[in-house]
Amino acid sequence: MQPRRVARRILGEPLTRRVRLLAGGTVPEGPSGLRAGARPGGGSLRRAFDRLPAPLRRADLTDWAWHFGTDKWGSHWYTPHYERHLGHLRRKRFTLLEIGVGGYDWGAGGESLRMWSAFFPRARIVGLDLVDKTRLSRGRVVVRRGDQTDPELLRSLVTEFGPVTVVVDDGSHRPEHVRETFRILFPLLPDGAFYAIEDTQTSYWPGWGGSLDRSDPTTTMGLVKDLLDGLNHEEFLVADAAPSATDRTVRAVHCYHNLVVIEKGDNEEGSNRELVPGKEGAPA
Ligand SMILES: C[S@@+](CC[C@H](N)C(=O)[O-])C[C@H]1O[C@@H](n2cnc3c(N)ncnc32)[C@H](O)[C@@H]1O
After folding, report:
1. 130 Cβ inside 6 Å of ligand 1
2. Positive or negative, the Cα torsion across 30, 32, 33, 39?
3. Would you list the domain boundaries of the chain?
4. Is 202 in the pocket of ligand 1 (CB under 6 A)?
5. Which 3-state string (H, E, C) describes 69-91?
6. Class (C level, CATH) for 59-269
7. What is the mean pLDDT of residues 29-50?
8. In the prediction, which pLDDT does 11 show?
9. CA of 7 relative to ligand 1 center, distance in Å
10. Does residue 36 carry a pLDDT above 80?
11. Is the model's pTM score more than 0.90?
12. pLDDT one-digit tens code per residue, 61-84
């Protein structure tokens, strides 16, 4: 996004968000004890803020993204989508696994883990990264080192921390890794789980393992398009089109700019094709 568009978007934020953020004193310490990006606040501002009506005081996921400095808002615009799909888990106990902790220097990274931990105060947040970020583990936040395509590692994380209700793949963004991670992890998730894949734009970028051919079936978006067909597997009229386990257990696929959120659940509602004339492709 152009800098002017970013500035316009940020300056155009609702007043409530700016009030909530300015009142930094109301922001509890992050899970790692690192108040990254914490705004100065407290004192009279804090007291004034505390007198605001409750709805004004309730920070949303985008507030937390701003506060902790993850690019899930500001560079990308993912947080409202996440809030729409995951908001119902806010007070629940569950496990969120994020692949890709971030930060290129030894002391950096973990912004999104802090955001998740603040937004989901009862959740276990597990971060996985190829680079050693394990020092960011603290309290409910656990960080492990490893490759997102390592099946043993992924299975052991699910065994240790599962059931995993939310997966966020913000790792290498290389389609072959994204697809392999999904192939390993998705079957291990419970019904009702959400599996998000970020930065799907790499599907179109050969330098990232994507392709200039938009119909290339090996990209991340190729996977997503297969999932869309799979949603309708009960309508296929080809005799040998046996549904895959994924076809039967993907209940919804929500696509946004550079982000996909896949919902796991029963996808065997049954077809109405026996009632519909022309089911063999002939005009009714
Ligand atoms: C975009 S950053 C994550 C940003 C972070 N989730 C946030 O929103 O603040 C991507 C991270 O993925 C990690 N990564 C790259 N390839 C990986 C792989 N094969 N397995 C696990 N992590 C990987 C990188 O080391 C980097 O820290």
Report:
1. yes
2. negative
3. 59-269
4. no
5. CCCCECCCECHHHHHHHHHHHCC
6. alpha beta
7. 42
8. 57
9. 26
10. no
11. no
12. 999 999 999 999 999 999 999 999
